[in-house]
Write a structure and sequence with these properties.
The chain is of the alpha/beta class. The protein has twelve helices and ten strands. The protein has an eight-stranded mixed sheet, with helices on both faces.
Length: about 400
C-alpha cells in the first residue's frame, strides 16, 4: 500500500466509518437488528408507513430498566458505535474506545443502545437500515425521492424513544452523541425530561442551528443541487446518478470537519505523486486534494444524495424543544449536562457549548464543560474521545 493509499484509508475510516485508533474491540461480536413501526406521524404532521431503522445494543438491561444509555450518531455515521460484526472486520465501531467492559460506557454496568437515524446517509450500505427518500413508498411502489416527508432531529428522537420503549427501557442513565448526535442528545432531555438523567453532548452544535450554521450546511448541499443528474431528486430509475455532486458535498464536509493543524501534520504541501509538480501539469495535484477526493468517491458509493439533503435540512431546522426561543426550549430540561467540544473544532465551535452551559446554569441546571485537546478539528470528537474518558466516567458516577 502506497503512502497516499494509507492516508486515504485513514481519512475514510475515521470520518465515515469504523476507526481503530488506540482502541480495542468490544468483547464478542455485535449484531445489527431492525426496529419497525407500521406507521409514524412526523413533527410536520405527515405519515410514514412501514418505518424501519437499524440498531445495535451492548451490555444487558437490568430488571428495573434504568441502566440504559442511548448513543446518537453523527451526520455521516450510523449505529455501529462499538465492536465488530465479524472477526475479520478491519476495525470496530467508531466509539469502541469508550464502549465496553471497564470503559467509560461500561457494558458490565450499562445497557448501550445505538440506532440508525431516519434518512441515514448510508442508504446503500448493507449494514445500515433506514427509511428515507430512497425507500419504496408503499402507496406508489416507487422510491419516495423528494416526496418523502421532511423530518427533524425531534423525529429522530421520537423514533429512538419508541425503540427504547420496545426494549423495555424505563429510564436513561444518559443520552450521548457526537455532532448531529449532540443535537439529538439535548432534544432527548427537552422532550422526555423525566426519562433522562444525564446528557453528554460531544462536539456539540449548542442548543440551536444559528444563521451561520444554517448557511454552512447549505454549502454542503449545494454541489448536489447543482448536479444535473440530481434531476430534482428523481434519479433512482436513471443510469446516471448525482455521484459527482455527492462526492463534492462529501469533500466539503470532510475539510470543514478538520483543522489546519491536522492538514499540515497529515499532508503538508506534499504532491500526490513524487516528482509530479502541480506547476507543470493540470493533471498533477497535491496529496491532500487526492486523498480527500478519493475518500469521498469511496464513501459516495454507499451514500445517497437525497438522504444527504434531508439530513442537511434536519440540522438546519434544529432548535431545542422546537420552541420560539432557546430559553423556552430548555425549560423542561432536568438532566445533568456535560458538554464536550473539541478545542480545535472550526465547524461546531467550542463557543456554542459555552453558551449552552451558561444558559442551562442560568435556569438552575447542573451543567459542566470539558474540552478534547488536539489539532484534529471536529473529528477529534470521534477519534480522540478517549482523551476525556475519565471525565465521562466521573460524570456518570455523580
Amino acid at each position: 500500500m502506497t503512502p497516499i493509499q494509507k492516508v486515504i484509508r485513514f481519512i475514510f475510516s475515521i470520518f465515515f466509518g469504523s476507526i481503530g485508533l488506540q482502541c480495542f474491540a468490544l468483547d464478542g461480536l455485535v449484531q445489527k437488528q431492525t426496529f419497525e413501526m407500521p406507521s409514524y406521524q412526523t413533527i410536520g404532521g405527515k405519515t410514514i408507513k412501514n418505518l424501519k431503522v437499524g440498531f445495535e445494543t451492548y451490555g444487558t438491561l437490568n430488571a428495573k430498566g434504568d441502566n440504559a444509555i442511548m448513543v446518537c450518531h453523527f451526520f455521516s455515521g450510523n449505529s455501529h458505535a462499538a465492536g465488530k460484526y465479524k472477526d475479520s472486520d478491519a476495525a470496530p465501531g467508531y466509539w469502541d474506545s469508550i464502549i465496553g467492559p471497564g470503559k467509560p460506557y461500561d457494558t458490565e454496568k450499562y445497557f448501550i443502545i445505538a440506532s440508525d437515524s431516519l434518512v441515514n446517509l448510508g442508504a446503500n450500505d448493507p449494514s445500515v437500515v433506514t427509511t428515507g427518500p430512497a425507500s419504496i413508498n408503499p402507496d406508489t411502489g416507487k422510491p419516495y425521492a423528494m416526496s418523502f416527508p421532511i423530518v427533524t432531529i425531534q423525529d429522530f428522537v421520537r423514533v429512538q424513544k419508541a425503540l427504547a420503549d420496545k426494549l423495555g427501557v424505563k429510564k436513561l442513565a444518559a443520552v450521548t452523541g457526537a455532532s448531529m448526535g449532540s443535537l439529538q442528545t439535548v432534544e432527548w432531555a427537552a422532550m422526555f425530561p423525566d426519562m433522562v438523567e444525564r446528557i453528554i453532548p460531544v462536539i456539540p452544535g449548542g442548543l440551536e442551528a444559528g444563521a451561520f450554521l444554517i448557511e454552512e450546511a447549505q454549502i454542503w448541499a449545494n454541489p448536489i443541487l447543482s448536479d444535473p443528474n440530481w434531476n430534482g431528486g428523481n434519479y433512482y430509475d436513471k443510469a446516471d446518478k448525482p455521484l459527482k455532486g455527492l462526492q463534492q458535498s462529501l469533500q466539503v464536509v470532510t475539510i470543514n470537519s478538520r483543522n489546519p493543524g491536522w492538514s499540515e501534520r497529515t499532508f503538508s504541501r506534499n504532491w500526490s505523486v513524487a516528482g509530479k509538480n502541480p506547476l507543470d501539469d493540470w493533471q498533477n495535484t497535491f496529496a491532500i486534494v487526492e486523498g480527500i477526493e478519493r475518500a469521498s468517491v469511496a464513501r459516495a458509493k454507499i451514500a445517497d444524495a437525497n438522504h444527504f439533503l434531508y439530513l442537511v435540512r434536519a440540522n438546519q431546522l434544529f432548535r431545542v424543544g422546537n420552541a420560539n426561543s432557546v430559553e423556552e426550549g430548555i425549560k423542561p430540561i432536568k438532566a445533568k449536562a456535560l458538554f464536550i467540544p473539541a478545542s480545535s473544532d472550526q465547524l461546531l465551535l467550542p463557543e456554542y457549548s459555552k453558551r449552552a452551559v451558561a444558559l442551562l446554569k442560568k435556569q438552575g441546571n447542573a451543567a459542566e464543560y470539558v474540552e478534547i485537546p488536539g489539532d484534529g478539528g471536529h473529528i477529534d470528537g470521534i477519534t480522540d474521545i478517549a482523551k476525556v474518558g475519565e471525565q465521562i466516567k466521573a460524570f456518570l458516577n455523580r
